[in-house]
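Rotation project, supervised by the postdoc (A.L.). Task for the rotation student: set up a whole-complex structure prediction and record inputs and outputs verbatim in this book. Inputs entered:
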Amino acid sequence: GKSGYDHFMLKEIYEQPQAVRQATRGRVSELDGTIELTAFPTAMRNELDRVQFVGCGTSYYATRYGAALLRERGVPAQAFVASEYGTERVPTEDGTVVVGVTQSGETADTLAALRDANGAGATTLAVTNVVGSSAARECDAAVYVRAGPEISVAATKSFASQQVTLATIASALADGTDRPFLESIRDLPAQVQRVLDRSNARDVAEELVGADAYFFIGRGYQHPVALEGALKMKEITYEHAEGFPAGELKHGPLALVTDRTPVVALVTGGDDLVEKTLSNVREVEARGAPVVAVTDDPDGVDGVADHVLEVPETHRYLVPVLTNVQLQLLAYWTANLLDRPIDKPRNLAKSVTVE
Ligand code: M6R
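Outputs recorded:
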């Protein structure tokens, strides 16, 4: 059941402290600061030269985030929309691991990409929520994200669990001794809980509902979150929403910005990125757009943002987990105010089993 929540989506959003805790349980040793992903074979780790991620929708955005983390760790990594993977001849020389990220493990596009990769001789890894799923069975190995059952069509806790799992894989590949990261992982469930307890996303949704469109902007690790925030918004509210890298706005999308198009800006990521994103925020403000800043430094957006959705400070890899929770709540409350059938949006299915 929904355990007292109006929708499975809200219940699953509130299950995220537990979900992110489960994602690392037994995999991260706080004592000696090491990470062991038992399902991630040592052989695979030793022979790994490059990683290609495939996924769809929300899971694709998780791959964008995962690939960026691996690149920062010195591992060449690319993210592909699964349905596009087979349209290119992507070289899969020795040492290529193709990682399929899929909550259900049954998404036809993702399975097709993994089969292509298997056929081309690549090593394949499934990062999935469902034990015994097709992806888990057909890949050389599987890592489970352990989010627990997700009923709502909109993916929420599974995305948080994917983020944490991919961050843990990135750390494990880098020999797993990143103490600041491990400490932040330990604190993450409580921080997600804090966001849930204190979020004012419902009030912000009330202020903004009825807008012409919603734009989401972010840089670096926050770019996939901007895309995910927009997907969640369009999926459950049926309102127009788009995500952009913050710097791209001025290359075209800015023409769409008016006083009826709120811009949700992810303002995190160190001084340099923050400063640049804030200058993009000023550009939309000059066009009269209501600005929502999602930030771990509310003082830094003082006078620039009309609304602030605050997140606690954490390791830079994990800030996107926290900011995303605020965007989930913003989409949820907007859809709620519009009286949408949140758990079962029109035209969509939980598991998409056709290509
Ligand atoms: O089960 P999967 O993770 O493979 O599903 C992929 C997408 O269909 C899924 O994430 C979809 O985009 C969600 N409904 C988004 O909320």
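Student's summary: The two ends are 31 Å apart (CA to CA).
Supervisor addendum: The pocket of 5-amino-5-deoxy-1-O-phosphono-D-mannitol is lined by residues 56-59, 102-104, 107, 110, 153-155, 231, 235, 351-352 (CB under 6 Å).
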